[in-house]
Amino acid sequence: MAIQAGRIRVLKEAEPRRDGAYVLYLVQQANRARFNPALEFAIEEANHLRLPVVACFGLLDGQNGFPEANARHYAFLLQGLADVKAGLEERGVAFVMRRASPAAIAIDLAAKAALLVLDRGYLAIQKRWYGEIVRGVDTRIVQVEGDVVVPVEIASGKHEYGARTLRPKLHRVWDEYIEPLRARRAAVRVDGLDLPSEIDVSDPEAVLAGMSLDRAVAPVRRFLGGERAARARLKAYLAGPFADYGTDRNRPEAGAASHMSPYLHFGQISPVEIALAVRAAKAGTGEDKRSYLEELIVRRELAMNHVFYTARYDSYAHAIPDWARRTLAEHAKDERPRTYTDEELAEGRTHDPYWNAAQAEMRVTGYMHNHLRMYWGKKILEWSPSPEEGFARTLRLNNRYFLDGRDANSFTNVAWVYGLHDRPWARRRIFGTVRYQSENSLKKFDAKSYLRTVERLCAAEGDGRG
């Protein structure tokens, strides 16, 4: 139950400050009070130094907010942070939340810290925050990975061509990382520290109401944020629908998906915790478990590999392979049988009722099944004036409506539509040799049943437009 050495990186070499009043942990990507390697590392170090632990979170909104985040995303985040606050305080760890960037609050509170501990995210904005912190803090800084099963650089030292090249590298090492993590006891509980918190996230709805943000995309009822909700959903899933995962995972109407992606995106549950629970599940066959771990680890961490080794992963020119851009450019002037405006796509007003239903599920509930995400993205490419515009509008829709948008998986899945992690296929109009997906792919599941499912889900959200 130790924290694997491969998860730990020293970002600033220095002895812990002797006059430090506490060990500081910046909560950024791992928004949970349990199964969090960075938090457990901070408690271990604090116990060794005979100091308490202070955790902090910087909340941004308005023009300075997290790029493309809206009321839907912030509601889910704040619900999770309410759990974090309660869980940390139960463990004797202080929680300070302020209106500031993650870098700003960490730099400010680190002035009195013996040691600063960071968790880890792989997006460019997160890397930028970590860089600001390293430049602005004098004390020792240690970063502890808790967002993937196998740390990205340990899995591979380069950008991988696809799942087939990354899979064997992960399989060789993942058993040493799929291990339980013991919750440490804080030997010195917080007492008397004058560290006021500007925001009391115990009432997430009140915090949300006071924020300046885009409210056009509303919070959803389908998913409640937080680690308690994540664990309850995982437990119910493994006791029931998981038994059919191997056969039904590609059938959107079958209910075989675990819906863990929003919780993973916000760091409200550990992928290692999920992997352990899947391995221990009484339901499901060995094939069910292998298939689930393939999606949870290989496919998800292929996305992390992509954004880590691609500086401009949100750019068509940088994220899409040369061969794919060439063939799409060759067919850029091909006649499009149909094109739609951004507004028509967002509102699901196309000729295709199944695409419209998938868009409604995303727009209204914040989720879309992976099988339909592929079809959805390929059709946007087909219906857009150019591949560059198709890429941009797919990313805009993805990041605006999905709860798990603005994620390594999101950027990678959108790029996959345009040829990333794929190979050339038979040449055809518009797509060139980039993989095409026709309406025939809908025959692999009960599409009529899916339409009824979306109608029911949209009605539950109070939106009958699905």
UniProtKB/TrEMBL annotation:
Cofactor entry: FAD; (6R)-5,10-methylene-5,6,7,8-tetrahydrofolate
Alphabetically ordered keywords of this record: DNA damage, DNA repair, DNA-binding, FAD, Flavoprotein, Lyase
Enzyme Commission identifier(s): 4.1.99.3
Signal sequence coordinates: none
Pfam family, one: DNA_photolyase
SUPFAM superfamilies recorded: Cryptochrome/photolyase FAD-binding domain, Cryptochrome/photolyase, N-terminal domain
PROSITE patterns referenced in this protein's UniProt entry, alphabetically: PHR_CRY_ALPHA_BETA
Record GO terms (molecular function): deoxyribodipyrimidine photo-lyase activity; DNA binding
GO biological process, alphabetically ordered: photoreactive repair
Listed InterPro entries: Crypto/Photolyase_FAD-like_sf, Crypto/Photolyase_N_sf, DNA_photolyase_N, Photolyase_Class-2, Rossmann-like_a/b/a_fold
Reaction catalysis annotation: cyclobutadipyrimidine (in DNA) = 2 pyrimidine residues (in DNA)
Enzyme class (EC, first level): lyase
Limits of the Photolyase/cryptochrome alpha/beta domain: 21-152
Origin superkingdom: Bacteria
Family: Belongs to the DNA photolyase class-2 family.
Protein name per Swiss-Prot or TrEMBL: Deoxyribodipyrimidine photo-lyase
Lineage: Bacteria, Pseudomonadati, Pseudomonadota, Alphaproteobacteria, Hyphomicrobiales
